[in-house]
Fold this sequence. Notes:
Layout: H1 2-28, H2 47-116, E1 121-124, E2 128-136, E3 141-149, E4 155-159, H3 170-177, E5 181-184, E6 188-191, E7 194-197, E8 202-203, E9 206-207, E10 219-224, E11 229-232, H4 237-241, E12 245-251, E13 254-257, E14 260-261, H5 266-270, E15 277-282, E16 288-293, H6 306-316, E17 321-324, E18 332-334, E19 337-338, E20 352-356
Antiparallel strand pairs: 1-2, 2-3, 3-16, 4-20, 5-18, 5-20, 6-7, 8-9, 10-11, 10-12, 13-14, 13-17, 15-16, 15-17, 18-19
Helix pairs in contact: 1-2
InterPro entries: NAGPA
Domain Phosphodiester glycosidase: 178-357
Pfam families: NAGPA
Amino acid sequence: xxxxxxxxxxxxxxxxxxxxxxxxxxxxxxxxxxxxxxxxxxxxxxxxxxxxxxxxxxxxxxxxxxxxxxxxxxxxxxxxxxxxxxxxxxxxxxxxxxxxxxxxxxxxxxxxxxxxxxxxxxxxxxxxxxxxxxxxxxxxxxxxxxxxxxxxxxxxxxxxxxxxxxxxxxxxxxxxxxxxxxxxxxxxxxxxxxxxxxxxxxxxxxxxxxxxxxxxxxxxxxxxxxxxxxxxxxxxxxxxxxxxxxxxxxxxxxxxxxxxxxxxxxxxxxxxxxxxxxxxxxxxxxxxxxxxxxxxxxxxxxxxxxxxxxxxxxxxxxxxxxxxxxxxxxxxxxxxxxxxxxxxxxxxxxxxxxxxxx
Length: 358
């Protein structure tokens, strides 16, 4: 489309060039006539009629040139007006075409946003767009955060206090790094007074404690260097490396893959039955969906079952979904405040947190 505009501009310039050149010549070329007959020392009586005729012819030529110049000026004006109108039309066509190109994405975003309900708070920047929603179901309540990542700076995962074995609350991690939002990430194991991330963990493209083959329903979930949610069970580092993980953590179980709910392993159907939950999922346009469900405790008496979470994810139109650490770990921080109600009654220090930057 842009090359067509350029070609049109060149055509206009070529069309106007002869007219412009003629006008310039008429304007700068002096008309002068000098006639001297040999031996007369000037004009004689016989030469006066000749001079008069020449002067008349010259005046006639100038009058004709003036008419031609006027016609050329009118032609250039018409070409210029046509150029302006055509340029405006082509710009309008380009604007319309750009809008049409984005229209399918806008329609899809409107549809999935409508399923989540009304936006209660939001953040918009060059790095991301984050929209917060409240969730109210029959047996539980919680929050959803839909995030569109626009740059590689928009999301990261951090270790507790940036140390292997370190721990910090999601709120502390958000404040320390200047993030605009954060959720708890993978599971952890305590040893020697330290809190270590569970199984395969990647930060800044590097394996924190080495690669560990998936076992006992554990799955890895993270973000690739192309800002796509990646995850699943990996039995070799080479298979995970093919996806170019930028960061990620491990927990159990996978909930949804390619738009289909996966069977919940028997152990996780009742252990616990209900609990606070944290889930990360994606849409087909690579937007992320984060769910944080509240509950009173981890004893199975409140919160959501994993099957209920799957129903919710299907209703919301998520494509892939992964269960993250839940219970007292489930925390959602948005714009400097803890949005949900962690079941411990206080924030739990964690080994890993997913963070989002404005």
